[in-house]
Amino acid sequence: MASRGIKDQVAIVGMGCTPFGEHWDKSVEDMLVEASQEAYASAGIKQDDIDAYWFGTLGSGVSGLTLSRALKIDYKPVTRVENMCATGSEAFRNACYAVASGAYDLVAAIGVEKLKDNGMSGLVSAAIPDDGTRPDLTAPAMFSLLAPAYAKKYGVDEAEMKDVLTRIAWKNHFNGARNPRAQFRKEVGKDVICNAPLIAGQLGIFDCSGVSDGSAMAIICRAEDAHKYTEHPLYVKALAFSAGPAAGPIDPDYDYTTFNEVVAAAKDAYVQADITDPRGQLAMAEVHDCFTPTELVLMEDLGFADRGMGWKEVLAGTYDLDGELPINPDGGLKSFGHPIGASGLRMLFECWLQLRQEAPADRQIKSVTEGGKKLGMTHNLGGAPGECVSFVSIVGSELG
Amino acid sequence: MRGIIAYGAYLPYFRLQKSAISKALGTGGGRGTRSVASYDEDATSMAVEVSRTLMRNAGGIVPSSIYFATATPPYMDKTNATVIHAALDLPSYVFAGDVAGSARSVNVALRSALEGSRPTLVVASDVRTGRPGSADEAGTGDAAVAWLIGSDSDGPVIAEWLGGASSTAEFLDRWRQPGWDYSRVWEERFGEHAYLPLVTEAATAAFKECQLEPSDIDAVVVAGLHTRAVKAAAKAAGVDGTKVADDLFDVVGNTGTPHAGLVLASVLDKAEPGQTIMVIHLADGVDVGFYRTTDAIAGYTPVKPVAAQVAAGNDSLDYNTFLTWRGFLDREPPRRPDPDSPAAPPSFRGDRWKYAFVGSKDRSSGAIHLPPQRVSVKGGAVDDMEPVPMADVPATVITFTIDRLAYSLSPPVIAVVIDFDGGGRFQCQLTDASPESVKIGDRVQMTFRRLLTANGIHNYFWKARPAES
User: Fold this and answer.
1) What is the value of pTM for the model shown?
2) Do B335 and A119 touch (CB under 8 A)?
């Protein structure tokens, strides 16, 4: 029993991604139309060429009809997918498997979320009737639990910890400022980030990802057919997913300095893609920086830093746009924004731009243009520390 | 012999300095402090807390009935005492009922228990206030008390019930229509005029009934919502004023239904064997009763003495926070959805978890699960669990956060992840604490609280609070 992977069996041949942000003048339908039209044009296809769809949204619609109604899909299979904040990635993963199975020639994975129509601050989750005993914390509060636990375990004092978190937000704002599709396209000074009003624990407003609207789509075919659609396809090297016992909140062995699900998904992905030195082999990674402590912990869970050393690497600039391993060169969830169902595919869109050297010049990463690296990662998670689902993909611009 | 086998008193953590009222309003207030139930407490949650305290002194006796007396019942129609029953994890054959509405309800409950033949848990609890600036606002307080009443065949009786007498009269001294959040009172001197002859009548009858003389009395407990009449009652009863126990009005306030019990607890905390205690309770008439401490009281160590709880109070509460907690200040909520109410069927299915904080323990690995699980997190054994009560197990904070976005009547929410001594982890709110003081390694204990009220449903569950030293 093993995760066998489908390395180099399928390819991404077209992508679309709407700008993310507060789209007061756009509906879910508008965003689905815009993302899909861009993706079709990118692959040089018509909608009728698509054999099947995987449609991800956390809560901006139900069933495949939300997509088929918007796009007027002509009696094709549309699967609605939901896996919390990893929804977009999960749509992509299942679409890839459908092609690899031979069931379809050409499929689409699309994600969308409309968060700004409910008038609330932060994310709002649907209420499932229960006994009222579940801790009712907001998302920033749950992820902020990582900060004191990490600081205590590795002897980082409160001020240093704040610097580390600030550095992560500063970096992602710097990158987002160079991304015309990002929600927040402004560099923000470290003093502004550091002194912003607190939301939860040590986290200020700039430590939290943008609540936004948006949609993104990928077109997928068998690897051998890829050049029918594009000169520069991206090949899928690994697709890994992990859902655990969600026992962190009830198991004293969990210490709130890691995501076991991420470690498991990364391990599986690296085996599938034959990666032995992720920090050295990857050109970039798009990771799930929902809140700044998440990105810090992910650096260690994904093998980009030794345990307890991630905070020093952050301060040293290892993950900056011009650093050794650029993390979230598009600004991440922090600056690009986080329309839940679209985010996993948005991460893939940055790999699509960067590995094909189509990113704007001021954020095109040198690990690709000068370092000659061919591989990118997307990492997506949903849930909370100790109880999450995690996705890791590796894509590359060459076969082999 | 029948009487008190165990007793308990509960004072909430917070105190309001009465001077804070006059500072804000330019009127009202006074000297001293009053006790304040926190935003997550009500008469029922405090009744649970005091009953838990009492049961630790009860030597394993399972009461056959629970009588819950309150003038501030959180629910009408629905019985409130069943929450106490569930929180104590008592068998279903134990009767639980309310005696609710007036301050005299407590004497209905006590009298029934004392005149009965089975061990009975009597609990009294009130959350009291008045309109901003009123005498009631400054003069009342919040508390809960409990007695385990039984016979010496049930367990050692520490204070024997000697008997008593009552007087009753219909007159308008104080009233509150259902739904009002404050009481109305008639002119103060009228109540005193009505009460004092009733005190004399009941005291005279009680002395005669029990063949006691005023000179036999070692301590006098006087309580009632008419403070002026209470102050004058000892004289009207013909007893020595120097024997009257501190009424706690200056530090706790007049707590209404439980108040006689609260003062009695403070007397019993220090009592020696063979002392005769007279209780005079003014409530739409007067109830007088006598207890005599037995030799067994020498071996009785109250879990939470009243004096220790008075000393542990935090009197830094802002007046505006007090008003917000009591619903007199309607403040802007965060831009978040209204809180959800718990659903009845899942609460019913998991009542031992929700109300008694009973987890499950995997027989093979020993792993403790909060909430109870079918499948073990350690080793994956299926359906090999036994219930494990965790409400009285101390714990340690392993990480925490201050949630400034979450809805709360008293933001910000302090959330902690705690590991219990001997195993088990839980994530919950920390209450009776300030955001500035919480840190990893803090010791905590569990406390029963009302998390929120939505759709008229009170969501009772457990929180952590700083451990009492």
Assistant:
1) 0.95
2) yes
Verify whether residue A85 is a known catalytic residue: yes
- pLDDT, one tens digit per residue, over A213-266 is 999 999 999 999 999 999 999 999 999 999 999 999 999 999 999 999 999 999
Q: Say if CB A221 and CB A15 are below 8 A apart.
A: no
Residue spans of beta strands (DSSP E) within A157-257? 198-200, 203-204, 213-222, 234-243
Same domain, B291 and B408: no
d(CA B403, CA A204): 11
Expressed in angstroms, the distance from the first to the final Cα of chain A is 24
Query: Is A290 one of the annotated active-site residues of the chain?
Result: no
Residues B320 and B377 in one domain: no
Q: Tell me the per-residue pLDDT of B123-141, one tens digit each, with 9 for 90 and over.
A: 999 999 999 999 999 999 9
Whether residue A340 sits in one domain with residue A199 = yes
The secondary structure of chain A in percent helix, strand, coil, rounded to multiples of 5, reads 35, 20, 45
- Inspect the interface and report whether the beta carbons of B403 and A138 lie closer than 8 Å: yes
Domain of B377 in residue numbering reads as 344-466
CB contact under 8 A, B461 and A132: yes
Residues of chain A where predicted confidence (pLDDT) is lower than 50 = none
With beta carbons less than 8 A apart as the criterion, state whether B54 and B83 touch.
no
CATH number of the domain within which A193 lies:
3.40.47.10
Backbone phi, psi, residue A169, to 5° = -65, -40
Q: Which residues does chain A have within 8 Å of residue B337's beta carbon, measured at their own beta carbons?
A: 120, 124
Q: Is the dihedral of CA A76, A82, A88, A93 positive or negative?
A: negative
**Are B310 and B391 in a shared domain?**
no
A157 touches chain B (CB under 8 A): no
Whether B107 and B219 have beta carbons less than 8 Å apart is answered as: no
Residue contact B337–A145, C-beta within 8 A: no
Chains A & B: contacts with CB separation below 8 Å: 124
